[in-house]
Amino acid sequence: MYNFEFAKPTTIADAVEALGHEEAQALGGGQTLLPTMKQRLAAPATLVSLNAIPEMIGVCLNDAGEVCIGGATTHAMVVREAAAHYPALAALASHIGDPAVRNRGTIGGSLANNDPSACYPAAALASGATIKTNTRDIAADDYFQGMFETALNDGEIITEVRFPVPQTANYQKFVQPASRFALVGVFVAQFADGVRVAVTGASSDGVFRWTEAEAALSGDFSKSAVDGLSVPSGSMISDLHGSGDYRAHLVKVMTGRAVAAAG
Amino acid sequence: MTQVKMTVNGKSVSGDVEGRTLLADFLREGLRLTGTHIGCDTSQCGACVVHVNGEAVKSCTALALDLDGAEVVTIEGMANPDGSLSVIQQAFQDHHGLQCGFCTPGMVMSAAALLKDNPKPSEHEVRDYLEGNICRCTGYHNIVKAIMAASGQDVTQIAAE
Amino acid sequence: MPKDHGIGASSKRREDVRFLTGRGRYTDDINLYGQAYVHFLRSDVAHGTLNGIDTSEAEGMPGVIRIFTGKDFEGVGGLPCGWQVTDKHGNPMQEPGHPILAQGKVRHVGDPIAAVVAETAAQARSAAEAIAVDIHELPAVIDMRKALEPGAPKVHDDLDSNLCYDWGFVEENKGAVDEAFSKAAHVTTLELVNNRLAPNAMEPRVAVGDYAAGTDDSTLYTTSQNPHVIRLLMGAFVLGIPEHKLRVVAPDVGGGFGSKIFHYAEEAFCTFAAKQLKRPVKWTCSRSEAFISDAHGRDHVTKIELALDADNNFMAIRTDTCANMGAYLSTFAPSVPTWLHGTLMAGNYKTPLIYVNVKAVFTNTVPVDAYRGAGRPEATFQLERLIDKAARELGVDPVELRRQNFITEFPYATPVAVEYDTGDYHATMDKLLIMIDRDGFDARAAKSKEAGKLRGLGINCYIEACGIAPSALVGQLGARAGLYESATVRVNATGGIVVMTGSHSHGQGHETSFAQVVADMIGIPEAQIEIVHGDTANTPMGMGTYGSRSIAVGGSAMVRATEKIISKAKKIAAHLMEASDSDIELKDGQFTVAGTDKSVAWGDVTLAAYVPHNYPLTELEPGLEETAFYDPNNFTYPAGAYACEVEVDPETGKVKICSFAAADDFGNVINPMIVSGQVHGGLAQGIGQALLENVSYDADGQLLSASYMDYAMPRADDLPFYQVDHSCVTPCTHNPLGVKGCGEAGAIGSPPAVVNAVIDALHRGGMTHVGHIDMPLTSARVWTAMQG
What we know:
By secondary structure, chain A is an alpha+beta fold. Helix content of chain A is 30%, strand content 22%.
């Protein structure tokens, strides 16, 4: 790892200021960033830890009934504290990485990185979450812009993520056996005004909404509703863990299972 | 270099570290606590697991400076005060839960974290919890058995010696 | 009643206490005063001409002490190969040079080009990044069959081709084998791949070189399974340091599985550089670096055929294998696909005619060498998959087809040059069938079906040749080393014993099990015996630990040395009791005169040996210390029967291991707990090979599975509790303990059981078009096969 200056502000304002310096980079739990830096694939001059900002840590329910999760909240805390409000989200968090990773990794870090195989992007997109930063609110539909690409500007911090709570929801993760990331993960969320289906792990464009399935499930929320659909394999990732065809197939299977599990 | 202070295995310690100094490096090189091992560079093998403020953490994926002021417990701090093996350590020996010993510190630390939250885990829960701890020697059989035994469960029905 | 001490007792492991409290001493825990650090700049292309290396900028970087390149090693020996195979025409194999740092060409991703020694590891790495390397990239050969095509790019320009050797075994049998096939009532053919694996001991390799200028002594601390072998190879063939000026220490070693047998460039470099720089030089391998610098395992592509007569008796076996050597010959690489593979093609069956052809091939990949089982898993996998396929084609029970062809009379000389001393293959199969409740399978399958899953059962046998091995035999087969083992038993004045063994423990528990044997022989507590290993300065010349040889060969040496001790001690006791030494009996640590109530204790005798006031000095030297070198007259032949039950998810192709059972015959067992643990670990590695693990290169020679993000290691939730049994015992007839060795069996015997089970599940599910799926049986591969 190259060396860097380390800053650990205690307020969002101080963090924003620290990130204003040349080649400064925010550090969430570091569970992806630090391994990347060990490979010397990233070389920030200053690393700004977001782990000591109390206003960015915690889970609560707001007046609109949304689950609000501070950007520096660990996966483990989401598992514990979101379970009562949004069980499918807590269940998703409980299968990210492993227990030690969940004790450090944060929701803000995961969403800012937008790994194409990460779990949280599927939850945020399927839930129609709002990604709240130090400057603005970004709708999940606008936030995810391709593999490792987001709407965040340089120095912009995810301070909170607000999840509308669906009537019913479920996430099905088919794990890549080495990394334990999602080979394919599908989050299905049924709201009063329709169903949203978000897919991670499968596409070279990153997380995406499977709109055909959403339409079908909005009319008939049953496993069989997706039986006749097919996922175009063209943009699917093809690698040593599975072909594009296989991933496309898994998207359908996992969607069906998520619907069945959501009930 | 910046000074970092922590409580490690109940003792106050301090040292000068760089920004990039990992907790694992600080423990191994700064404090000569070489029981914490480094088995990979992608945060997966878990040989480096220690407890930070009571929670299992991969010390190879945490910066020492980010843990300034933390309470850290390593494998060197797990034995009973009189030096005898703790219940978990003893169970690993009794049930042959280790062979080469390299992954063992991380396994013991993960096991302790699991049993703190879940005093009577099922086989499935133990295996699930060990997702981030890789062992190449034991095939996990005796590790899972040892952890279940350490939790006071009867493991005599589990196959093999 | 299970025994509570000595041979046959599940004594708890004494070494565990230090490992469980963080007080192990692994090589990376060793830091020497004034130590510098080396970082190796490695090739990022698979094949290329090295036109120039510009180190000028790097040399000025902070902390840099010196930068070494291939030029610095001109005149220094290359890494030697310890085994020469003779091809089917009687010619020696093609044997390329293997420089410490690349000279002229790079031949695989990871090939070391330069070595930067600096004050810190980070400085060394930064400086390495500043080295400008001019490489003219050449087309790479990755696929073995393409590498053998005329006109293929050559890995080594000075060799005739990429063919290391074309080996026929037994060449004289070829005509008879072909004739048997022409007369066969049925021929079953199978083409398969034995996937390339990365051994992945959890402790990455480390080397620390040290040099004492005052005495001209060099010391290497290294993660090795055989420090004496490293001392001999590195001292005699690479650096020209005589053994008495070179000490090699392998302290606590975090697993080996074969990968730490070999002499690696980094070990020679650190020893060399320490002397050049007059400072200790340390190298710690990262996991990412391990994937491109540790020798890999397996990597065979095979066509195998079985000829059967009208009564389903095996008539002949014929195989055609390409075995990947990688870019250079690692220490024992040539022996793996030949003498450790061809000699096992008879398996547990009385097939009268066998012909094995192996073409060893150079490719632009990491060198391939022994990995747990080494050649024997490849043989077992071919044979046991083939027999399963034959049974399916013939519509007979795969267990019955095996039983019908079992070898039942011993000793049995196979047509592939080895003689099995003992065994009872029906016994282990009988035991296995009880363990797995085969009759209950249909009910379990029905239950799986209700849950939407396809259940399958796979059964197979295995045999291995281990306890490697008789020096005279391996010498004839091309080994350039002897394969005896040694032990010195030193009895101290007050009765405690130190055993210095040439075997090396890196997880096998020798400190406990070896002590059990000596304690049993003398009748004193195990706690009075200390086992010392891993340091050439205080152990006799030994060959180390691999090939399931420690207890069979190293243990036997220790028994022989202990016998000498007992013999001398009886003479001393006889003198003390004024009796004839032929009347002295030793039991429970007491010497008695037969038929009398006279006795002296073990401690009285040992004290007399060192305080010889009342001692037969004219007949006997004082002291009580003996050394033995033991060289067996045959391999040992552990064998057994394994079974796996799986569930396949027909929607995704995902395979779940429901149960795994292993019935082994290891001969006599010293510590059943340790033996079970060895089997467990082997099973996990075999199941890992069958379902998860794969070293994968793209066509340009870039490693795709270069970290744990892409190389799937078996984890706790991939595996079940295993059922293991070693109650079927046919003791080895030619070593004093009657032991056979247990370290590799699990890895050898388990892959075919898993694959047989998956194929069985698919056939039961109606997918009878699936004849075979190559390992690893990932969800994607199984699903793709199911699609037809």
